[in-house]
């Protein structure tokens, strides 16, 4: 597999690099009988409703040598701005924090696997693209604990998935604040563990997973010691004197719900509470005591007892976790909390030896006829009629960030099943769907059943000549295309799912806004040639038989007639004798493209073809022929068009 990382330069003030994880063999999209996942990075940060910083490379350890060996990154955020105006904006657009992390991680070949949000609590899970086929059974859930369970300012969000046959759960929590709320924190954590249940035959609860990462703003404080002694211990770098008074350390030995959870040594200063914009602890009138509120823990499921001669189930063969790094990042000052990061080396013995879908493609596509894709599905793979194969540019951000796609064939019958098991199936990208120019691309098979990518290829080259026709059609689209583009981006800037049916939903119960129902927009003219419409039917162009508008010769002084004056002029032309006289003297002519009335032509405005020029024709003295002659053919351009009449196929009507 390619192992490329963009060149980076070190920044002043970044945290000391953690020890590099041991280099281990990787699993490429080819077959492999065993696997060692070198490292997983976990980050937690209470951002305090702040705007994202300009750079987070040091937080994610992207400018150090260990980046090449990090395979997954889980990022938990708390107190992301969730006021009503921000939530409305985030419902239309991706939130700024998620955008930042995707922009930073995509050049390093990290893809957003899953995300879940509950008001200000967000969890994002990223993985290297070549691991995507081995990340299955992805589900999300969230639990509100604020205001007795009715408000999501406190609670937990989780992403669970199968990693090479092992069930892993990432749990991001924001628990109640203040020193005296320790018991409330225990009750809320127990509620989260009890409420969050997942579908499937195994690992229905959080603690049923083989490996659990628990992190977030857990809000545990330092008991008994006064603020002066705490600050003295911090300044003197004798943090061990504070460990035994830390509420979470005490709870791990006394609370049954925390039995089995492990945490590395707290060798970094307490991460709360700082004056925003500085590295100074709280200097306000409240003078809160510093505390390690932001924590990262993990738990390995103990082997089940009483399994008899069969031993543990296959996914529990070998599982070991060692923490390579546990540190805070003092260089980030946008919040009153400091972010905390941990790097884990996780060793799996995988029961997966090949991906669910294997894709075969040529090393280079230099001609459109070479855009042939062969793929073969594993026995037991649950395919769907909504499965598709996406073409991605190297450095894509998430599974829906494709350049183009083609539907995967889903012919039924035992004969087809036998054929695809032996020789595989084949699809082909149309010439219009292929990107022009040179670049590196990846193909991925998206499974609608599992809402994940079930197979990927290694990068290959596409070298196709650029089309001049596409640029000319784009230039002729006019201002209407810009308006259409802005509307489309406003409604769905990131969601480019090709499925015209219902996509499988995650189980997240996070608040969400209602979708825009019944709103149909025509794509801009620049997208007509290479449409990426969710509909499998191709869109047709505007009708060619719209009648030409004839007007009398314009006088030089009336070239800039406005819209209202045009309406008055049209009404004055209702007298047919005047119209005939003008036509006899001047003769019919086509209106120039610069004329205001010409810009009212639907072909220039980009309006739907259902808009007709009946009023203009009446003003010009035209009489529509009988309905039987079909002077204006009725076209059903969308499922919402009224079935008023029908036309024969030879009239060129769309279905």
TrEMBL record:
Alphabetic keyword roster: Cytoplasm, Hydrolase, Methylation, Phosphoprotein, Repeat, SH3-binding
Comp. bias intervals (Basic and acidic residues): 552-565
UniProt region (Disordered), positions on chain: 1-20, 463-597, 622-655
Compositionally biased spans, kind Polar residues: 1-10
Molecular-function annotations in GO: inositol-polyphosphate 5-phosphatase activity; phosphatidylinositol-3,4,5-trisphosphate 5-phosphatase activity; phosphatidylinositol-4,5-bisphosphate 5-phosphatase activity; SH3 domain binding
UniProt keyword annotation of Hydrolase present: yes
Family annotation (SMART domains): IPPc (SM00128)
Protein name: Phosphatidylinositol 4,5-bisphosphate 5-phosphatase A
Enzyme class: hydrolase
Biased composition (Low complexity): 470-480
Subcellular location per the Swiss-Prot or TrEMBL entry: Cytoplasm
A biological-process GO annotation: phosphatidylinositol dephosphorylation
Superkingdom, natural source: Eukaryota
Location (main, coarse): cytoplasm
Family: Belongs to the inositol 1,4,5-trisphosphate 5-phosphatase type II family.
CDD domains, A to Z: INPP5c_INPP5J-like
Catalytic reaction list: a 1,2-diacyl-sn-glycero-3-phospho-(1D-myo-inositol-4,5-bisphosphate) + H2O = a 1,2-diacyl-sn-glycero-3-phospho-(1D-myo-inositol 4-phosphate) + phosphate; 1D-myo-inositol 1,3,4,5-tetrakisphosphate + H2O = 1D-myo-inositol 1,3,4-trisphosphate + phosphate; 1D-myo-inositol 1,4,5-trisphosphate + H2O = 1D-myo-inositol 1,4-bisphosphate + phosphate
Gene3D superfamilies given in the database record: 2.60.40.2840, Endonuclease/exonuclease/phosphatase
Function noted in UniProt: Inositol 5-phosphatase, which converts inositol 1,4,5-trisphosphate to inositol 1,4-bisphosphate. Also converts phosphatidylinositol 4,5-bisphosphate to phosphatidylinositol 4-phosphate and inositol 1,3,4,5-tetrakisphosphate to inositol 1,3,4-trisphosphate in vitro. May be involved in modulation of the function of inositol and phosphatidylinositol polyphosphate-binding proteins that are present at membranes ruffles.
Domain Inositol polyphosphate-related phosphatase: 39-353
InterPro entries: Endo/exonu/phosph_ase_sf, IP5, IPPc, SKICH
One cellular component (GO) term of this entry: cytoplasm
Keyword Hydrolase: yes
Pfam family, one: Exo_endo_phos2
Enzyme Commission code: 3.1.3.36, 3.1.3.56
Source species of the chain: Origma solitaria
């Amino acid at each position: 597999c390619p192992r490329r990382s963009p060149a980076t330069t070190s920044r002043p003030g970044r945290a000391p690099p953690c020890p590099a994880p041991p280099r281990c063999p990787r699993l490429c999209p080819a077959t492999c009988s065993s696997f060692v996942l070198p490292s997983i990075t976990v980050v937690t940060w209470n951002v305090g409703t702040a705007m994202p910083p300009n750079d987070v490379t040091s937080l994610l350890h992207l400018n150090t040598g260990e980046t090449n060996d990090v395979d997954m990154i889980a990022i938990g955020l708390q107190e992301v701005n969730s006021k009503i105006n921000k939530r409305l904006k985030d419902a239309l657009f991706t939130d700024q924090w998620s955008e930042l992390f995707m922009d930073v991680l995509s050049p390093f070949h990290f893809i957003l696997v899953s995300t879940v949000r509950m008001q200000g609590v967000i969890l994002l899970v990223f993985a290297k693209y070549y691991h995507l086929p081995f990340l299955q059974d992805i589900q999300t859930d969230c639990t509100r604990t604020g205001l007795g369970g009715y408000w999501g300012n406190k609670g937990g969000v989780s992403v669970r998935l199968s990693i090479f046959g092992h069930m892993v759960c990432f749990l991001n929590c924001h628990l109640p604040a203040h020193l005296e709320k320790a018991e409330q924190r225990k009750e809320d954590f127990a509620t989260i563990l009890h409420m969050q249940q997942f579908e499937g035959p195994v690992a229905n609860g959080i603690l049923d997973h083989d490996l659990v990462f628990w992190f977030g703003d857990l809000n545990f404080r330092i008991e008994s010691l006064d603020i002066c002694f705490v600050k003295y211990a911090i300044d003197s770098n004798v943090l061990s004197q504070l460990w035994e008074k830390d509420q979470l350390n005490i709870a791990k030995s006394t609370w049954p719900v925390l039995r089995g959870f492990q945490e590395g040594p707290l060798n970094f200063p307490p991460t709360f509470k700082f004056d925003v914009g500085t590295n100074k602890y709280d200097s306000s009138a409240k003078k809160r005591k510093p505390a390690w509120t932001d924590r990262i823990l993990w738990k390995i499921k103990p082997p089940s007892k009483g399994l008899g001669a069969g031993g543990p189930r296959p996914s529990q063969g070998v599982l070991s976790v060692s923490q390579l790094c546990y540190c805070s990042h003092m260089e980030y000052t946008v919040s009153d909390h400091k972010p905390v990061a941990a790097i884990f080396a996780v060793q799996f013995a995988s029961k997966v030896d090949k991906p669910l879908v294997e894709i075969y493609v040529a090393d280079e596509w230099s001609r459109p006829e070479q855009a042939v894709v062969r793929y073969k599905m594993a026995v037991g793979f649950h395919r769907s009629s909504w499965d598709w194969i996406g073409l991605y540019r190297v450095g894509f951000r998430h599974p829906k960030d494709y350049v183009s796609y083609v539907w995967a064939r889903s012919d039924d019958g035992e004969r087809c099943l036998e054929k695809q098991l032996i020789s595989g199936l084949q699809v082909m990208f149309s010439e219009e769907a292929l990107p022009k120019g040179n670049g590196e691309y990846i193909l991925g098979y998206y499974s609608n059943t599992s809402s994940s990518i079930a197979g990927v290829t290694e990068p290959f080259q596409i070298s196709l000549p650029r089309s001049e026709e596409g640029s000319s059609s784009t230039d002729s689209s006019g201002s209407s295309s810009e308006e259409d583009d802005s509307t489309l981006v406003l409604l769905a800037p990131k969601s480019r799912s090709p499925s015209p049916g219902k996509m499988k939903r995650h189980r997240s119960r996070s608040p969400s806004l209602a979708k825009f129902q019944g709103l149909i927009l025509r794509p801009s003219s620049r997208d007509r040639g290479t449409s990426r419409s969710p509909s499998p039917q191709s869109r047709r162009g505007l009708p060619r038989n719209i009648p030409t508008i004839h007007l009398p010769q314009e006088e030089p002084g009336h070239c800039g007639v406005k819209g209202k004056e045009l309406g008055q002029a049209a009404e004055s032309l209702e007298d047919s004798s005047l119209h005939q006289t003008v036509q006899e003297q001047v003769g019919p002519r086509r209106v120039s493209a610069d004329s205001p009335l010409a810009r009212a032509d639907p072909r220039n405005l980009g309006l739907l073809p259902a808009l007709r020029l009946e009023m203009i024709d009446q003003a010009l003295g035209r009489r529509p022929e009988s309905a039987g002659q079909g002077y204006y053919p009725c076209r059903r351009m969308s499922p919402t068009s009224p079935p008023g009449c029908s036309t024969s196929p030879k009239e060129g009507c769309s279905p």
